[in-house]
Amino acid sequence: MQYSGGSLGAHRIIVAEDSNVFTSMIGQTLKENFDIDIEVCRSFEELQLAYEYNERPITLAISNINLPGAENGEALKYLAELSIPIIVFTGTFHESTREGILAHDIVDYVIKDNILAIDLLAESVCRFLTNHRHHVLIVDDSATARALLRSRLERFNFKVSAAENGRQALEILKVTPEIGLVITDYNMPDIDGFELTRRLRAVRGSHELRIIGVSSSDNRLLSARFLKAGGNDFMLRPYVDEEFYCRVNQNLDTLDQIKSARKSIGSRFAAKVA
Questions:
Q1: Which end of the chain has fewer beta carbons closer than 10 Å to its terminal beta carbon, N or C?
Q2: Which of 76, 89, 92 shows the shortest CA–CA distance to 26?
Q3: Alpha helices in the chain (DSSP H)
Q4: In what order do the strands lie in the sheet with 210-215?
Q5: pTM of the model
């Protein structure tokens, strides 16, 4: 992911980490790329003081699982209870660790196991701070499924709308042209996911709108049918958190790249004509 926007320095970013090496690398990378000055908390006590004695809201916390004074993950629980978005940056990771981390509804996690870890962390920070620029439409006739998916997307800081059927989705898209991604269920009573995709493609191409089909079915041909109807991607429920976020990001990145390329071509053509 390449960021070419303006400064993100207005955001308050807390880094709860006791390693001088990592805090220095994180601070330097976020400052150079996004003009962000981080606040470092090297212990659980410093983290508590950073929240309690500064009225400025914390936009995002980057936290290790274990801190001095919170050796059993208390820092993550503390931040989660304050509804502060969290990116976990940890060197200790296995399946049980993953389950414990995801139980806090974190934004993302990055493992300190390779030289790209800081770059991956910076990318995750940038995505969270800029995801509000993307508008996603959920289409599902199940109120529970809509609520769960909305919660998941809003956790990642996306702007979200929802429709309970295909007809409502078409109406929302007519009056909300800035929607760039539709996530639609396959099995709906009025207009199923295939037909909705076909109707959307009749008016908006992949350069304007990305479409991800979803289903709980074990029919392996559904993905092929969605793609042939004009969809860009397909996922089976229940989702794996990491895969879900990756698929959403990939589709929105592709949309941004297409828009950027078309804009560049248009500018060159205009200059040539002039």
A1: C
A2: 89
A3: 20-34, 44-52, 74-81, 95-102, 117-130, 143-155, 166-175, 193-203, 222-229, 241-273
A4: 159-163, 135-139, 179-185, 210-215, 233-236
A5: 0.90
Closest by CA to 221, choosing from 208, 234, 238, 203, is 234
Task: Return the structure tokens found at 71.
Answer: 């050796």
The dihedrals phi and psi of 29, each to the nearest 5 degrees, come to -65, -45
Contact at 8 Å (CB) between 68 and 44?
A: yes
Do 170 and 227 touch, CB atoms closer than 8 A? no
Cis, bond preceding 238 (omega within 30 deg of 0):
yes
Rounded Cα gap, residues 25 and 19, in angstroms: 10
Q: For every one of its 274 residues, what pLDDT tens digit does the chain have, with 9 covering 90 and above?
A: 556 678 999 999 999 999 999 999 999 999 999 999 999 999 999 999 999 999 999 999 999 999 999 999 999 999 999 999 999 999 877 888 888 899 898 999 999 988 899 999 999 999 999 999 999 999 999 999 999 999 999 999 999 999 999 999 999 999 999 999 999 999 998 899 999 999 999 999 999 999 999 999 888 889 999 999 999 999 999 989 999 999 999 999 999 999 888 776 766 666 666 6
Specify whether the CB–CB gap between 211 and 200 falls below 8 A.
yes
